[in-house]
Amino acid sequence: MTPRTSKKELIALYLRFRTLLDSLKELPAADVITPELDTLLAVIGNAWQAGKPYPVRKLLIREELGSPATIHKRIHQLKDAGFVSFETLEHDSRVRLIVPTEQAQRHFAELAKVILQAAK
Amino acid sequence: MAYGYLALFVLASTLIWCGFIALYDWLFGWTQWVPGVNLVYLPHGLRMILVILFAESGAVGICLGTALMGFDLLRANPALGLSHSFVAGASVWLAARLLIKRSDLAGETPQTGSDLAAIDGRTLIALAFASSALNASGHVLAWLLFESEAKQLEVRFATMFTGDLLGAVILLYALRALIIVIEKNHRPRP
Question: Which of A30, A71, B9, B43 has the smallest number of Cβ neighbours within 10 A?
Answer without folding.
Answer: A30
